[in-house]
Amino acid sequence: MAFLRVDPSGGEPVFQQIVDHVKREIATGRLHPEDRLPSVRDLAKELVINPNTIARAYQVLEAEGVTYSRRGAGTFIAATKPVVKGEERRRRFREAIEAALADAFHLGLSEEEARKAFDAAMKRFRLVEER
Amino acid sequence: MAFLRVDPSGGEPVFQQIVDHVKREIATGRLHPEDRLPSVRDLAKELVINPNTIARAYQVLEAEGVTYSRRGAGTFIAATKPVVKGEERRRRFREAIEAALADAFHLGLSEEEARKAFDAAMKRFRLVEER
DNA sequence: TTGACTGTACTAGTTTACCTAGTACAATTG
DNA sequence: CAATTGTACTAGGTAAACTAGTACAGTCAA
Q1: Contacts of range B11-20, beta carbons closer than 8 Å, 24 or more positions apart
Q2: B90 contact A CB<8A
Q3: B14-77: which CATH number, 1.10.486.10, 3.10.290.10, 3.30.930.10, 1.10.10.10?
Q4: pLDDT one-digit tens code per residue, A40-50
Q5: Nearest to B111 among A89, A99, A127 (CB)
Q6: Looking at the partner chain, which of A24, A27, A114 has a beta carbon nearest the beta carbon of B93?
């Protein structure tokens, strides 16, 4: 079973697709703290892309505090902890939601459809407090 | 008053920023059908960017059915009508929401904060049926 | 200790998207 | 008719993304 798929042609950079995928796997509970990601070389071979591209994705993940890497050992999921906080995180989320709704308007989505989709997503993503 | 602001340095292409801005202005009711957008040259001068970039943004908007353009006359907001429908539009919206929630998870956003932000956005965007 | 595996760090080059610059043309408007 | 509009070209610059290859240093198990 493939760890993930990437689309080299599409608009989004491959390394970003990998970053987003890992984040989503964590948020939906399919990846847990201390889980090990495939090695840079293994994943590169599986996805048929350059190892440098995988390395870059892993470096971004580590820079954001999502994972931690150790030479010779591998890359692992970090214990989740909010790095960004308060005003900043609310602003970022608001912008993402507004962009989605602006698109939805032009797609002809109804209010009911929007709420349904949001509720369904909330269930799948473990958006619960843990302090 | 400036029609909009663009950030040439930021990650998102300038032409895309213009497209998104116009869509949002419509979705929030600040632009209405038959309203005229600034001319390619005027807006280029105001934003201090190349007219070709504005032209490209307007062409994208027209291709998506958001506006219509007439030589010598200008570019106008089209009567809103869903071009994409049913399954496709739900899928697109779901993906946007899930991406926002996956990020929210790693930002440490609580379920309550997420719901508040969503409700607030729903109010601002006129996501209501009109048939 | 050895050897295989890991992440990391370089250099070099290609490709593509985005943007700028300039010119020209066709359709609309007053 | 004259001014304004969107549109269509060509040409070139810049930066990001990706590939390719090599090398190095830390980890781990045999």
Answers
A1: B14/B49, B14/B53, B14/B57, B15/B53, B15/B54, B15/B56, B15/B57, B15/B60, B16/B57, B16/B60, B18/B53, B18/B54, B18/B57, B19/B57, B19/B60, B19/B61, B19/B64, B20/A99, B20/A102
A2: yes
A3: 1.10.10.10
A4: 999 999 999 99
A5: A127
A6: A114
